[in-house]
Amino acid sequence: MDFNVKKLASDAGVFFTRAVQFTEEKLGQAEKTELDAHLENLISRGDSTKNWTEKILRQSEVLLQPNPIDHTGARIEEFIYDKLDKKIPSRTTNAELLGQYMLDAAAEFGPETPYGKTLITVGEYQKRLGGAEREFLHTTTMNFFTPLRNFLEGDWRTISKERKLLENRRLDLDICKARLKKAKQAEAKAAAAPDFQETRPRNYVLSASASALLSEEVDKAEHELRVAQTEFDRQAEVTRLLLEGISSTHLNHLRCLQDFAEAQATYYAQCHHYMQDLQRELSRCVNSIGAPNSSAAVCPNPVSSAFLSGPPPTGAAVSSTSSSAGQKPKTLTMEQSQLPVTGARKAKVLYDYDAHDTSELSLLADELITVYTVPGMDPDWLVGERGNDKGKVPVTYLELLS
Fold this sequence. Notes:
elongated, five-stranded antiparallel β-sheet
């Protein structure tokens, strides 16, 4: 118990002297040992890496989990499962939940009704979108969030601990320098004005004893300074080696960014593919009902600005006024464009389209191609030709010209 009290008193004394030294440095009343320029640059670079990593990680989490309450709950759940050393269960995404609601609504309204069939179709694709989102979140968490978080909670904590220790070593070094300076000043003052006028032997002995004590104090201060300088140099080297590892951290984060971008590209490509398939399914829904004039009320037009480059041109439909005036229409309506095409016709491409396989033809918006149909072909598709290239093209992406 006595040892602990002494250690506590010693630690308190060290803390107090460091606090005094730090305060005097801030007030300009004490000299401060400056770090070398290379180490200062490494410290500045490390601070920038830590700050920007925190911002990127935080904003990425907000991007993928916009609701702050859900985000906080997810982090708490991850923390609990991490402490229990258990695998985090996969959470249902909002798109999957929406799809399930649509399927439940279809079961209540009747799966054989037009509305029920459409609900089932859209609901199934919403669940597919949700599954793609869940996979994207899992991949991003493993390949992007986890490495960045490990740096902040692991490597950077170690660097911060060593930097704090380096600062303490620097304060101890400056304290030793100040102590040695004061001891030398006292010794010089005593040597410059010796008390030779005192003739009594007792005073002479006392004067010589004080001089010896001052000399001993200088020797002790010099020894403490050498020890403090050695510890400071050793700690500066340790800190420098850790901070130089930031370059490896940058390379690791670079690979994480590449994985994140690749996961994003895969996710959005899947979503685009699912929405194109949903578009075809809804087009078949319109054709199977056989009522194109009322299709908007039964099965909505699947072409939307959510996944196309822009709204359909205003000239895609022919007004009844221009027809009644005897003017020959130049384009056909969207419903007429889905009817079988007899013979080769010119068509204008409305939107960009990427072929899914070798049997299809990729399209660019505003280009002109030749289209025609063949017996037994799906009414949602036409054969398109552009020079020597030929393949299937979706009707909804075309504007047939007369």
